[in-house]
Amino acid sequence: MPGPYRYTSPPAPRSATGTAAAVYAQSATDFGIAHPVPLVALSSAPELLAPVWALMRESLIAGSGSRTDRELVASGVSLANRCPFCVQAHAVLLHANGDHELGTAVVQDTRPRDERAARLLDWGRATRVPGSPLLAPAPFARTDLASSVGTALSFHFINRIVSALTKDRLLPGGGAKFQAVRSLASRSMTEVVRAEHAPGASLPLLDAPGAGPAWAAGTTVGPAYDALRTAATKGAGLLDDGDLALVQETVAQWDGTHPPAGWAGLPDRGDRPGARLAVLAALAPYRITDQDVAAWKVPPFTDHCLVHLIAYGAFAAVDRIESALPVEALLSADDAAV
User: Fold this and answer.
1) Residue 328 CB coordination number (10 Å)
2) pLDDT tens-digit profile of 8-30?
3) Is residue 86 flagged as an active site residue?
4) CA 88 to CA 167: how far, in whole Å?
5) Is the pTM for the entire model greater than 0.85?
6) Catalytic, out of 86, 216, 232, 284
């Protein structure tokens, strides 16, 4: 289909049936966009749609605490991951929520005057660095831990999907620089962004998820995260044992930095194209090239396979970040840290 997609031809959303159609319907009512670019980019592998949507919905949209706080966390993540599309999207959502000064600070990558807002943005950025000492104490209440961490991890995944599989631009012609343009783009979403959304509505779309990790215990974020972990890691089956071990070892050693131009650890395109794509999806998805995709995407591999491989790489980074969270420090946080 035409649009901001590269490397795959996603099915037209109007042709969606079953769970995929239900995801798009919920997105229209709860997110204000019927066919968000990240979801459509994944739709060649429709089994990924519900888990990705569920984690975003249950954390960013229906999570506890302030929507402004969660948008700032997502913005910090997107800035750290160098995802212009997502940075612009969160700036628009902040404008839709009435946070015009914060929307401008995000899109211009400047520090907000409000110190608490700046701390939330910094916390979101810091999540890119596995085990960063800047993550604790957290700039939010313990009761908002699941929604804040879930939002961060959701967008670590979504940023990578967008950077790998789309043309990575929301507002054309440099329009994101102008507050009037961003505000205009946000107007149709204001009512939805400011509304209260009940937790749990996305969970019936999932296939028997587990309870999820300790930081999300007792919340709807936990099953959503577990479902995404299950769905995304299925892409590991597209790699042979040697390539899989190489990807896992490379990601396990990652310290959160952006790889240098002369990246000696990047697998060779000619010898290990699958491992190369997965590693790039994890650590530098904006550096995936036409040549990288063409070297791997040959029969029997299809759009469905490519989306699963990119999703596997993206989640490998998410898993590295999540597994290094200072969970005990975060779980012991209280309102005094806010």
Assistant:
1) 9
2) 999 999 999 999 999 999 999 99
3) yes
4) 13
5) yes
6) 86
